[in-house]
Amino acid sequence: DDDDDIPQLSSHTLAALQEFYLEQQQREGMKTSQGFNQYSIGSIEEDWQLSQFWYSDETASCLANEAVVAAGKGGRIACVSAPSVYQKLKERDGKDFSVCILEYDRRFSVYGEEFIFYDYNHPLNLPENILPHSFDIVIADPPYLSEECLQKTAETIKYLTRGKILLCTGAVMEEQAAKHLGVKICKFIPKHLRNLANEFRCYVNYASGLD
After folding, report:
1. Where are the domains of the chain?
2. Which of 50, 51, 140, 164 has its CA at 20 to 30 Å from residue 119's CA atom?
3. What is the mean pLDDT of the chain?
4. Are strands 135-140 and 161-170 parallel, antiparallel or unpaired?
5. What is the third-level CATH fold of 48-204?
6. How many C-beta atoms surround the C-beta of residue 200 within 10 A?
7. Who has greater pLDDT, 149 or 95?
8. Record's GO cellular component, any one (predicted)?
9. What is the helix, strand, coil percentage profile of the chain, to 5?
10. SS3 for 77?
């Protein structure tokens, strides 16, 4: 029978595929509805090929709150490869702070002048208007769990910050984080929208509210 040669999807695979398409339709429906917020987490979907994993809403809120307190009134905040914290900060519509997002993914250019294209392979390749030590706090989440990625991102962080650093990365990077940035692990444990295989932690170099 010729039909035997036609590949068939299993019922489980077919159901998963239908669920995926349904979710996609719902997201697109959200984007065209009046109540859609371009800054909400998930408004730009994760791209796993770019090693993107968004924080949970609670984690993003906690880190955003910490950044605002650490930056102080009128403070400047830089989010390096940490778009969900940037989005949460923008949701606050804060008048007492300003924020920039440094990101490789050009989809975030929808955020206008606050978007700065950033490739950690070229850590100091930044626009001329981004002056050294011009941010009160830098929040960074290097895309890969490698010392090379952390070391290069650390160059960017040290160039940008006036002193305060909030780093989010794997627990396995604790030694390298201390070595390259002088940061210590916090009690607060960040969560993601999807569970990651690697244990994730926050690190700071100042007295924070994350302990």
Report:
1. 48-204
2. 164
3. 83
4. parallel
5. Rossmann fold (3.40.50)
6. 20
7. 149
8. cytoplasm
9. 40, 20, 40
10. strand
Specify the residue for token string 């830089």. Answer: 78
Which CA distances in Å does 94 have to 39, 138, 158, 179? Answer: 13, 17, 25, 34
The H or E element containing residue 185 is strand 184-185
Residue 34: per-residue pLDDT: 40
CA proximity to 210, closest of 63, 85, 80: 63
Distance CA 77, CA 85 (A): 10
Q: Determine the pLDDT at residue 54.
A: 77
Spatial separation of the C-alpha atoms in residues 98 and 3, rounded to whole Å: 62
Q: Which contiguous run of DSSP H or E holds residue 170?
A: strand 161-170
Residues 6+ apart with CB under 8 A from 44: 83, 105, 107, 108, 110
Q: Quote the longest CA-to-CA distance of the chain.
A: 75
Is the pTM here over 0.85, yes or no?
no
- Beta strand pairing call for 161-170 and 200-204: antiparallel
Distance (Å, whole) CA 175 – CA 179 = 6
